[in-house]
Design a protein that fits this description.
mainly alpha, 74% helix, 243 residues
Length: 243
């Protein structure tokens, strides 16, 4: 889960800032619906666990998150945040909330009170290690997909008589800067931007697809390995859960 959450969603931030042109602050705000989804289902999971046990919630959560990640594979250079990103981000958060709360409770079943802190820390450490490994894996997938797109699609050709070096730029021109360019050069610059951004989006989409596969594999692992029942949960009015 740590690999999919930290490694996969890294490219969501890249998409917001590089392709959609969001500022860092707006990109953070655009990610908040995932946090809201986690908070909603975390509260629901805390209330449902004493009734249904942790296993059904832990099996259902990854499926919901995987659907959200699969929706994120449909992003494009010109797609809308509201129609192509928001639904996937919300579903990702809803599924993670269903998984995270029972996971932390199951990790503490049978652990003595004086060892509960160490057991909880071990779970958090595993999440962080998973995030580091996920970042490495998804970076490889992203790079390979981007390179494949660039090699299989022809790059725009500069207008006749204009050397490519004369058009090289490290930044994306603004609308006013584009409007000031002569027509052939403007069309070439727009085509080049679309070509490069399409390569980026291809890499992001493949990373999201890999994260979806990784997340959905959690469900059969839970069904096979998790044997905790609702009667095994810590006694008390409120189950312990991850902050």
């Amino acid at each position: 889960m740590g690999a999919a959450l930290l490694g996969g969603t890294l490219y969501l931030t890249f998409y917001f800032q590089i392709v959609l042109g969001f500022s860092p602050v707006i990109a953070g705000v655009a990610s908040l619906p995932m946090t809201g989804g986690i908070m909603m289902t975390a509260a629901a999971a805390s209330a449902l666990m004493p009734r249904v046990g942790p296993k059904p919630l832990m099996a259902a959560g990854p499926v919901v998150s995987a659907i959200g990640l699969l929706l994120l594979t449909q992003i494009g250079v010109d797609t809308s945040y509201w129609t192509h990103v928001l639904p996937g981000v919300v579903l990702l958060g809803l599924g993670l909330g269903l998984l995270m709360v029972p996971m932390q409770n199951v990790a503490l079943i049978g652990v003595a009170d004086h060892d509960a802190g160490a057991a909880s820390a071990l779970v958090n450490a595993a999440l962080q290690i998973g995030g580091a490994l996920g970042t490495a894996v998804f970076t490889t997938i992203y790079t390979s997909a981007k390179s494949s797109y660039l090699s299989s699609n022809t790059a725009p050709v500069p207008p006749a008589g204009v050397p490519p070096k004369a058009l090289a730029s490290q930044t994306v021109p603004s609308d006013s800067e584009l409007a000031a360019l002569p027509e052939p050069i403007r069309e070439f610059v727009i085509s080049t931007i679309d070509y490069m951004f399409s390569a980026e989006v291809s890499g992001y989409a493949h990373a999201f697809a890999a994260a979806a596969i990784m997340v959905v594999l959690i469900s059969p692992i839970v069904l096979v390995l998790v044997r905790a029942r609702k009667t095994d949960l810590p006694a008390g009015d409120t189950p312990v859960h991850m902050c």
